[in-house]
Amino acid sequence: MNYFAVDIGGTFEKFAVITSEGDFLAKDKIPSIINDRQRFLDSIEDQFHAYEKIYGKLAGIAISMAGVLDVEKGYAYNAGAILSVREMNIAEYFSERCKVPVTIENDAKAAAQAELWKGNLSDVSSGVVIVLGTAIGGAVIVDRKIVRGKHFFAGEFSYVMRGDHRNADISNMWGYNGGTLGLVKMTAEKKNIPEEELDGFKVFELVNSGDEEAMDIFRDYCAGLAYRIWNLHAVLDPDRILIGGGISAQPILLETVREELDKVAAIQPNDQKAPEVMTCRFFNDSNMIGALYAHLLRNP
After folding, report:
1. Which of 19, 91, 157, 203 could link 102 by a cystine bridge, Cβ 3.0 to 4.6 Å?
2. Amino acid 206: pLDDT
3. Given this model, what pLDDT does residue 294 score?
């Protein structure tokens, strides 16, 4: 059977037709419609019907999106940058319009589902996924199931506090400076370059070229990431921890984080070893693959 998968981001809405085995038959994307609810909903429904004309009856719709979601009810309390669909039952709406089962999944947790299904968590029972994006997404897996929490807040690593507890400020949240934008901002300040002239790709051009100032900032960034990984390791002791997001495709990231984790392990009093850390196997398609896996689990 074939399914319609959607990945709703702040920049693009991505669409695909995927088989029940996870093979892509078609992919497309359009700029995200952020502030107009009906245009946003219509854009997804129109693409669904367009694909059905080509591929025949689609068996379901699997949606990945940012925000705090009740995935059992299909309800979005908020949807990240898509301001128009806060407090809405997304699954119910599209199920009524398209006459197929519909599921929703948080985007970072969808990435984790992809790793559980066919990626670097397929051979373990517990894990943590940290997604380095604009901020920090994530997921905690126990007994091969996503831990969601009473308030659907489990794995929302952006909200983890760091630094001096006497200075309670938004800048002490991990997501404030732990994502790609944080790395860009710190590098821009160090290099005295306007922030708008840098992005993640340009930062890694500097790092990979051996620029000393960029390397100093990058090493500090990885040390901070390693500390947070160690804390998660101490609380959860999972089989494996994965790092995802666009910058995780840079080999130097994993290499440096592992070096910094070894330093943390070296100061432990009980010969505690560093956790096993890898990158995610899937990158740009992970959210749609994981959303489909979540859909298949709920609609066997």
Report:
1. 91
2. 97
3. 97
Residue 148 lies in a domain: yes
Q: Are residues 105 and 141 in the same domain?
A: no
99 located within any domain: yes
Contacts of 59 (CB under 8 A, 6+ apart): 1, 2, 3, 20, 100, 101
Whats the size of the chain, residue-wise?
300
- On whether residue 115 sits in a domain, the answer given is no
pLDDT single digits (tens) 266-296: 999 988 999 999 999 998 899 999 999 999 9
Based on the fold, state whether residues 127 and 239 are members of the same structural domain. yes
Of 52, 90, 53, 47, nearest in space to 68 by CA: 90
Long-range CB pairs of 89-98, under 8 A, 24+ apart, other chains included: 90/63, 90/65, 91/63, 93/41, 94/41, 94/44, 94/45, 94/48, 94/61, 94/63, 95/61, 97/45, 98/45, 98/48, 98/49, 98/61
Residues 56 and 125 in one domain: no
The CATH code of the domain that includes 258 is: 3.30.420.40
Could you tell me the residue range of the domain that residue 13 belongs to?
2-110+285-298
**Average pLDDT across the chain, whole number:** 94
Task: Copy the structure tokens of residue 180.
Answer: 């790609």
3-class SS of residue 137: strand
Cβ atoms < 10 Å from Cβ of 300? 4
Residue 249 sits at φ, ψ, to 5 deg, of: -75, -10
Same domain for 268 and 291, yes or no, is no
146, 96: one domain? no
Question: Is residue 116 one of the residues assigned to a domain?
Answer: no
Q: What Å distances lie between residue 229 and 46, 90, 113, 240, CA to CA?
A: 42, 33, 20, 11
Instruction: Give yes or no for a contact between 173 and 185, defined as CB atoms under 8 angstroms apart.
Output: no
